[in-house]
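Running this now, will post back.
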Amino acid sequence: MSRVGKKPVPIPDKTKVEINGSHVTVTGPRGTLERDLHPDMSAAIEENQVVVTRPSEQKRHRALHGLTRALVANMIEGVSNGYEIELRMVGVGYRAELQGQVLVLYLGYSHPIAFSPPEGVTFEVFPKEAKILVKGIDKEQVGQAAAKIRSFRKPEPYKGKGIRYADEHVRSKAGKTAAG
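Update: finished.
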């Protein structure tokens, strides 16, 4: 039995969950999220908790069981508390600014990079700390936007310059002189 899948998802006080067949709608203080679950999986509300069940013990159904439960839990967490990912810029002259909703990055290229946020995602910039906060209620969209920003200048292993997650550790490599 799936350890993740069989665990019920508690529903907080100010959050409302509606299940119509395989369509789940979660409404909370921060907004509304909707998702179509896999048709083989079934979800039900029992005693202020969402319980996900699977039809058989097939490997595919066991995998979908944990995935479906995690997706529902992420939706409930998102509309209740929201998600945020912190990015740090390391490098001389690397900076970011907001122009309206658009994030403009200066990362040592010959041109600035303008990045428009996907719907439901917002940015906060702290220029003194060279920090960018990516916020939203959909965990998938927040993670995708943060990964896209990081991809503009990934951290390199020799000097450690680039955009990295706040909790990311970049392993340093020795340069040419230390190798010989």
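The longest helix spans residues 59-80. More later if anyone needs it.
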